[in-house]
Amino acid sequence: MKILILGATGGLGSDCRKVLGQEHEVICPGKEEVDVVSWDVVIEAFDTISPDVVLNCVGLTDLDTCETDPFALRKINVEGPRNLAQSSARFECKIVHVSCAHVFDGRKAMPQPYFEDDAPNPLSAYGKSKLESETAVRGNSPNYIIIRSNWLYGIHGDNFVKSVVRHAVRGVSAPMQLPDDQFGAPTWNHRLALQIRELLNKDGRGSYHATSYGYCSLYELAQYVLGKLRLKAAIEACSLSALSNGHLLPVNCVLENRLSKKQGVNVMVNWEKDLDTFLEQFGDQLIKEAE
Ligand SMILES: NC(=O)c1ccc[n+]([C@@H]2O[C@H](COP(=O)([O-])OP(=O)(O)OC[C@H]3O[C@@H](n4cnc5c(N)ncnc54)[C@H](OP(=O)(O)O)[C@@H]3O)[C@@H](O)[C@H]2O)c1
């Protein structure tokens, strides 16, 4: 397959580039070459490249920026996916689009997970934009995969695991306030890239959840990372409502990968297993980068 990956310099996109590139031809233009916001640029890219698949790893993900810059949010998170979906339809190409657990309000009682067909009800501007992006993809492309994931980490880009390591290595004395009453499954970008490859190889279609098994709070996740890397850091448990943007965050972010399990195409594993492998492989690099 010829796969056009957009957002390939980001956290998830970088791992997708590596994993998909092992079996397929991948083309990874940067933002300067293909800005998804521009219809003319997108359609020209499809015309020139003629991809079998376009994988959209582009996104504005910083929650605070999403609240304060609605213009950029709409352009990047909604109009971009719409441009890609419409172009995919015109060029008979499959689109894979990455969405998020923040399309749900997270009010389901723990430990019940969210299924693919649960009713969305986003709380934040980011969550609303992701839900709109899903509608744009479904409404414009007959051959799509939408993948909802959450709490992504990896060696590329910035993420929560890296900020915990930074906090420890730099010896920041002010404690990091981390909620112990919000739950999700930390998911390794590399693992999600494997899941995307599996879905493409098996011609998956529709909306899939794809996160690691199990769940924890961000406070527990930080403790786990510090313990594995034998680091000490000032961290303090707090409740989600104590955070300034806490009201915008779903409490229950746990997703069940029901569709991929049903179809026998689920490759996700327990979150501790992947995090152990990640920290074994990249722990030293994380510490060095943080210094
Ligand atoms: N992070 C998470 O925990 C999480 C959870 C669930 C779902 N997701 C979704 O997964 C996707 C990838 O997230 P991520 O964490 O990998 O994001 P990321 O690290 O911030 O990467 C975003 C990528 O988008 C590119 N980009 C931004 N604006 C663009 C534009 N106008 N045209 C083309 N490219 C543009 C960036 O390029 P530059 O580097 O050049 O700016 C970068 O390569 C997003 O859709 C996000 O909503 C993320």
Write the layout of secondary structure elements.
Elements: E1 2-6, H1 11-21, E2 25-27, H2 39-49, E3 53-56, H3 63-68, H4 70-90, E4 94-100, H5 125-140, E5 144-149, E6 152-153, H6 160-169, E7 176-179, E8 183-184, E9 187-188, H7 189-201, E10 206-209, E11 216-217, H8 218-228, E12 235-238, H9 258-262, H10 271-290
Parallel strand pairs: 1-2, 1-3, 3-4, 4-5, 5-10, 6-9, 7-12
Antiparallel strand pairs: 8-11
The chain binds NADP nicotinamide-adenine-dinucleotide phosphate.
Structural overview:
The chain has 291 residues and is of the alpha/beta class. It has a single domain, classed as Rossmann fold. It is built from 10 helices and 12 strands. Helix 1 links the parallel strand 1 and strand 2. Helix 2 packs parallel to helix 4. Bound molecules: NADP nicotinamide-adenine-dinucleotide phosphate. The site of NADP nicotinamide-adenine-dinucleotide phosphate has 26 residues, from helix 1, helix 4 and strand 4.
Looking at the structure, what is the overall shape? globular
> How would a textbook summarize the main sheet?
6 strands, parallel
Beginning-to-end CA distance, first to last residue: 41 Å
Enter the CATH topology name.
Rossmann fold
CATH superfamily (homologous) name: NAD(P)-binding Rossmann-like Domain
Low-pLDDT runs of 5+ residues are: none
The number of E-state strands comes to 12
Q: Tell me the name of the CATH class.
A: Alpha Beta
How many separate domains make up the residues?
A: 1
Heterogens: NADP nicotinamide-adenine-dinucleotide phosphate
* Rounded radius of gyration (Å): 19 Å
Question: What's the number of helices?
Answer: 10
Secondary-structure element sequence? EHEHEHHEHEEHEEEHEEHEHH
- In the sheet with the most strands, the strands line up as 2-1-3-4-5-10
From the 3D coordinates, which CATH architecture would you assign?
A: 3-Layer(aba) Sandwich
Kindly report the average pLDDT value.
97
**Share in β-strands:** 15-25%
Fraction of helical residues: 40-55%
Label the structural class. Answer: alpha/beta
